[in-house]
Structures are given as C-alpha cells and as structure tokens.
Specification:
heterodimer; A: D-Maltodextrin-Binding Protein, domain 2; Dipeptide-binding Protein, domain 1; Dipeptide-binding Protein, domain 3; 3 domains; eleven-stranded mixed sheet; four-stranded antiparallel sheet; globular; B: 271 residues; mainly alpha; 11 helices
Chain lengths: 489, 271
C-alpha cells in the first residue's frame, strides 16, 4: 500500500514536471476603474474581462471577424428587422445560475433603458422589443434593418449579465466565460481562475493574473526581469528592438481600431473655418510623427477609418504635408500672421511625444499651439466634457466608430447635416456593396472637411515570453483574450 | 581666494556663460525637430549627440541652463525680498507679538515638506515656469527670515547700534543702515546654497512634468524623456544628469568657499 502511494506521488511529480506551465501573469498599463463592462466606459474593463469572464451573443475573434458566442445560431427575418437567437444549452453563470433567454432579455433591456449607464447606448438604439420565446430562444425586434447588429452584439458593452449578480457586478463580476473572477487588489493586480464547468472549450490555463503597471520604465523592468509573462500594449515602442533581439521574448505587433487624431474643436474660432483646418492638415508631416512618437509603429490615415478594414479609402492625398500650401491657406483665411491656440495632451506617449512634434510643425507655419499636459481624469473633464480646448491628440479605439461624427455634441463638435443624414442611411442599409459605397462617401466627407487632423492608426505591441502561444496580436476590440492561450511544451 | 571657491566659481561661470550665450546663439534651433537624426551619439556635428526628437543636446543643455538659472534666481529673489525684511522687523521688535507672529508663521511654512507643496501649487494652478518659481520661492522665505533674525539679534546688543539709537535713529533706519550691511555676507552665502537647491527643485518639478512646459528646454524634462531610452541611448540621460550634478556641485562649492572667504574670523586667522 505504501509502495503504491509512493509510486503514485512520484508519477504525479514527474507528470507535473513534464507538463507545461498552467498559470500566466499579464502586465497592462491601465487598471479598470470598476469591473462592469456594461456600465463603464473604460477600455481597461474590457481588456481584462472581455471573453475571459463575460460573453455576448456574438463575439470577436482575434482577426476581427464576428462568430457565434452564447447564441449558437440565429435567424433573420426577410425584412431584416427581427433576429431570433438560439442560445447554447447548458450555459451557467459562475455563481451556478443558468444562462437562458430571460438573462438575455434582462441584459439588453437594461442596456437600452432610459436610465442605463452603458457607455455605448448607440449599439442598442434600434432595438424596439426583446421577447423570450422559450428558455433557449430570444427574439429581438429592431425599428429597421441594421447591417451591423450582429457586430454590435459582439462589443464588450453588450455582454450578457445576470439579474442575480447585477448588484455587485462592479466589484465582483459574474459572467459565463472560461475564467472565473477571484480577486482584485486595487492598484496592483486582478486574478482569474479556470472555469471548470465552462460550456465551451475549457481554457488551458488554470490561473491568470493581471498586473497593472502604468509607468513605462517599470513596465520595461518587469518584462526584462520576467516578473510578467506577457505585457499587452507595451507603452515604450523604443524598447521593442531590444526584446526582438532577446531570445527569451517574442514581440507581436498588431492592428488596433485606434484612429489617432489631432482632435480639433470645430466650434472654436478660428477652427470653425474649414480653410484653417485644411491649413493644419497640410502643416503636419505624419511620417515624422509616426517615427518620432511611435518609432515607426503605425499606419498613416487620411480619414477616420481603420486601414485594415476592406471599406477603407486611401484619402492621404487630401492632406499631404505641404507647409507652403498651409501658409497660403492661412493667408486666405485672413490669418497670415498665424494665431495662438491650445494643445491639450493626455498621458500616452503617442499624445505627449506626438504633441511636441506637431507643435513644432505648426510653429513652422505660424500657428503657436501651447502645450498643456493633462492626466486622463483632467482630460475627460476639460477636453471631453467641457470642450475647453483648441487641439488635442487622442486615439479613438472603439471599432467602427465613424458614427460619432453624426453627433454634434461629441467633443470635437462637428455639425454637418449631410453627414448625419448619411449615417442614418447607413444604419438602415444592409446590402454590403451599398454599405461600402456609403462608408466611402462618409470617409471622403470627413477628409474633405478636415474635421480633425488624421494622423495614424495606432499599432499595439504585445511582448510575451517565447513559450506563450494563442495570444491575440491584433486588437479588434480592447481585449486580452486568454481563453486560447497556453504554454508550449 | 580658496580652492573650493575657485572651482565653484569656475563651474558656475561655465553654466552662466552657456545660458547667456544661448540668448544670442545655439548650435541648432531646438524648436525645429529632426526626427531622421534622432538618438545619435557624440559627433562633430552634434558634440553631445541628439535626443529622441533629433534635437541637438548641447543646444538643449544651453537653453535648459537658462531655464534652470532663471527659475532658481527668481525663486531666491522672492525668498530674499520677502524673507529678509520680515527677519529684520522681527529682530528689531524682538519679543513683541509681531515677532512671534512672523516666526510662528515661518515655522508653519517650514513644517510642510517643501517639494510636496510645490507639487500641490503647480498641480492646482497649472504647470508652468512661473508657478514653479512661485512654489519654490515661497519656501525660501522662512529660510531667509529666520537667518536674518538670528544674525540681526546679537547685532542689536552691540555698542555701535546703541550709539545709533542714542543719535535718535529709528529702528527702520538702523535696520537698513547698520544691520543689513553687517549681515550681507551671510545672505550671499545662504543665497548661493538656496540657489543650488532651487536648481534641484526646478529639475524635480520638470521631471514630473510640473515645471516649464515644452518647447521650453529643461534639464529635468530631458531626464524624464530619456527614461525609457537609457538602455538604447544612455547619453540622452547622462548628459542632463551630469549637467545638474555639476551645476549643483559648483554652486555648493562656491557657497562653502564664499563663507570661508567672507567670514572675518577666518580671514583674520589667515593673515
């Protein structure tokens, strides 16, 4: 008997040594302010919880495509206004309650309610009714056909939550995903463990720890010392060549949905004059911004659209770097002697460094942009809410967000009825070719109106230890999806 | 002139000259970025290399010296202009309620950790060179007030002051005509030391982004910008770091040297 026990423990020991590591530590820069993806606007919430803890009816894959999530299939009515979702059988929330059509109805109704705090209420705007047909079937009625409805349902803001656990979701998120939330030490780390009763393919990792490291220097040190196995969104692109040269690490560079723009207050003189905005656009040398601020990471854009999207139109020619033309345009606008404005910059290095480069380029044509560095909270207050700014630099990381230009109250205050009508039309068009044409038209309007200075599409660098596999390189939405991540043997 | 005074004055003069020359000429224009030539090492074209925007670091150091000196000088100026008169009044009215008020007020300001309050001031009123000057200057006030009072008090007991009083001079005139000239040496020495602390404080505030804003050059911000570049372009951090060390060392040596040189007791012993 003793012998067998001993043999068994030796076997267990050997097995333990041979099998790969089953825990992972992931570093990231921003900490979520709370843990409710359906109630907070912060991208950091989705980074940690999307797909890992919470799932929606549909979900994004790493390449940006939308695949079935909690809904295993769906039927769309002839006129495109009724979606009947067939839910997976046997899905349970982490607290043991079952996930059924009632939960879907609850989640969608909660998100689209008058008093909803959902950061992306526009995703649900077209829903007129959600009906439970039976526990595994739910019928969603729209006020008109919406070509991007399934795409919208994949967003982190549209995940399915349960009425039983909604009260404490901000501190104790209960979802249906492959990982269960276990602990959150604010200012330091957040821990997940594997959901062994997961309905789909179970995760390979048993434990995942997210560590929040905001300082770029500390991030560099943490990766070099192997304190973290993965760093998602590494903040200092100048250090990437060192990691690439080091056999201990792999560097994944991918696309994001982040259009990085020189946000321009379209209501503040002199930016209310299109000639001035055009002058600003021609004063900017995008390539030196990309090289100087991002060490070459990033793709130039000429409008508010992701270049890896098939509907992207290359409109860079509208805003070529041409300081002479810029000066001529300023003279035409009656500002031959230039003018003074503000340039308010949030913390990321693309903004802080890009801001210094752009200020220098603007100075060359006579525009004195005075730099003020702001923390995120101040930026949200002063720029985003109070609209007290001339220029700013920020990356708009939401997927397919050209629609924000139809909102005249959005912080850059672009008010063009033609564009608003175009967006209305786009929302009711489902035919792909027609949608492409409308997208092209929308991009062209923005480019020719020089609404903002379009700089580049933000790239994301993820640094991982050599043995880590299954990470997303691209960021079709803010997410660090660990469900398919494993260690090589 | 003693050795530390000589070395201190030499180093400080170099920086003052660099700062002065920057008004007329710098090797390159630091407001024009040259991204293609970023992070270049030492060369004939760029004696101290280039930074992450391709700017000439020597030019940045020259312009940064100007910022540092201007901020520190004005901050010390504020401290002296307010602190010395307060100290003189407190000494003249020693023991009065007025004296108590001034000195306890000083204690209050002293009790605050100065850099933390400087951060608070610049964070509330906005980051700028002016606010940095005010923030650093406020904490120079009690230093000078206390020193002035301490130096002036024993003077009031001396016979020549008694003579002046007998002649009917008012305390204000005595303070200005007899006390002040006799404590000038002390003020100069303390001023030099406060000046070097001011340089450090300016660098610290700029380092955390609360000092002079870009494109104004500042040594502290050069250090902050170089933080993630230390492993690939160490000169971007070393050059401004060494500049700060040298400048502060020079001023401290000068302060020490001045004290020895100006102190009559030491001078008498020497002759």
């Amino acid at each position: 008997m003793k012998m067998t026990l001993f043999a068994a423990s030796v076997c267990a020991l050997v097995a333990g040594m041979a099998s790969a590591q089953t825990d992972i530590t992931v570093g990231l820069q921003l900490e979520p302010p709370n843990l409710d993806p359906t109630g907070g606007a912060s991208q950091a919430i989705d980074s940690v919880l999307y797909s890992n803890v919470f799932e929606g009816l549909t979900r994004f894959q790493g390449d940006g495509s939308v695949v079935p999530g909690l809904a295993e299939s769906w039927d769309i009515s002839e006129d495109g206004t009724v979606y009947t979702f067939h839910l997976h059988d046997g899905v349970v929330f982490h607290d043991g309650t079952s996930m059924d059509a009632e939960d879907v109805k609850f989640s969608l109704d909660r998100a689209r309610a008058e008093d909803s705090t959902n950061a992306q209420k526009g995703l649900f705007a077209g829903i007129t009714d959600v009906t439970v047909v039976d526990p595994l079937t739910v019928k969603v009625t729209l006020d008109g056909p919406n070509g991007s409805f399934l795409f919208n349902m994949a967003w982190g803001d549209a995940v399915i939550v349960a009425p039983e656990s909604i009260e404490t979701i901000a501190s104790n998120p209960v979802g249906t995903g492959a990982f269960v939330f276990t602990d959150w030490v604010q200012g330091d780390r957040l821990e997940l463990t594997r959901n062994d009763s997961y309905w789909g393919t179970k995760a390979a990792l048993e434990k995942a720890t997210f560590r929040f490291i905001s300082d770029p220097t500390a991030a560099f040190a943490a990766v070099m010392a192997e304190d973290v196995d993965v760093f998602s969104g590494f903040p200092a692109p100048e250090n990437l060549p060192q990691f690439e040269a080091d056999p201990r690490f792999q560097v994944l560079v991918g696309n994001t949905e982040g259009e990085t723009i020189l946000s321009t207050n379209n209501k503040m003189p002199p930016f209310d004059n299109v000639l001035v905005r055009e002058a600003v656009a021609h004063a900017i040398d995008r390539q030196s911004v990309i090289d100087g601020a991002m060490y070459g990471l990033g793709t130039p854009i000429g409008t508010h659209f992701a270049p890896h999207n098939p509907d992207y139109v290359d409109l860079l020619a509208n805003s070529q770097y041409d300081p002479e033309k810029s000066k001529a345009l300023l003279a035409q606008a009656g500002l031959a002697d230039g003018f003074t404005t503000t340039l308010k910059l949030p913390p990321p290095s693309y903004a802080r460094r890009g801001g210094e480069i752009i200020a220098s380029q603007l100075r060359a044509v006579g525009i004195d942009a005075q730099i003020t560095n702001l923390e995120w909270a101040q930026w949200i207050e002063e720029v985003f809410k109070a609209k007290d700014f001339g220029l700013s630099i920020v990356s708009h990381t939401e997927p397919m967000d050209i629609g924000v230009y139809a909102n005249p109250d959005y912080y850059f205050q672009y008010d063009n009825p033609e564009f608003q009508a175009l967006m209305e039309e786009l929302n009711t068009t489902t035919e792909p070719a027609a949608r492409s044409a409308l997208f092209a038209k929308a991009q062209t309007i923005l480019s020719e109106d020089y609404v903002n200075g379009y700089l580049f599409e933000l790239a994301i660098a993820t640094i991982a230890k050599a043995g880590v596999q299954g990470l997303w390189a691209n960021q079709p939405t803010a997410a660090i999806d660990l469900t398919a991540v494993s260690w090589a043997e | 002139m003693n050795k530390s005074l000589f070395i201190g004055i030499s180093i400080s003069t170099v920086f003052v000259v660099l700062a002065a020359v920057s008004f007329l000429w710098t090797p390159y224009d630091i407001e024009t970025l040259d991204i293609a030539n970023k992070l270049k090492g030492f060369s004939i074209a760029h004696l101290l290399g280039t930074d992450h925007f391709g700017r000439d670091i020597l030019s940045m150091i020259m312009m940064g010296a100007r910022t540092s000196i201007a901020v520190a000088l004005l901050a010390v100026g504020i401290g002296m202009a307010i602190g010395v008169p307060l100290g003189l009044v407190a000494a003249a009215k020693s023991g009065s309620l007025f004296d108590e008020l001034i000195m306890r007020g000083n204690d209050l300001v002293f009790a605050f950790p100065s850099l933390v309050i400087a951060i608070l001031i610049t964070a509330v009123f906005g980051a700028s060179a002016i606010n940095a000057i005010v923030a650093i200057g406020i904490f120079n006030v009690p230093v000078f007030a206390r020193l002035t009072r301490a130096a002036a008090l024993p003077l009031w007991e001396r016979d020549f002051i008694l003579a002046a009083r007998v002649c009917g001079k008012s305390p204000t005139r005595i303070s200005i005509e007899h006390i002040l000239p006799n404590i000038t040496n002390l003020m100069i020495v303390q001023g030099t030391i406060q000046f070097s602390l001011g340089i450090l404080a300016e660098a610290a505030l700029s380092y955390i982004g609360l000092g002079a804003q870009p494109p104004t050059a500042s040594w502290g911000r050069m250090l902050a910008d170089a933080q993630t570049l230390v492993s690939i372009a160490p000169h971007t951090a070393l050059v401004p770091g060494i500049a700060i060390v040298l400048m502060v060392l020079g001023l401290n040596l000068m302060g020490d040297g001045l004290r020895d040189w100006l102190d009559p007791k030491v001078r008498v012993a020497r002759t």
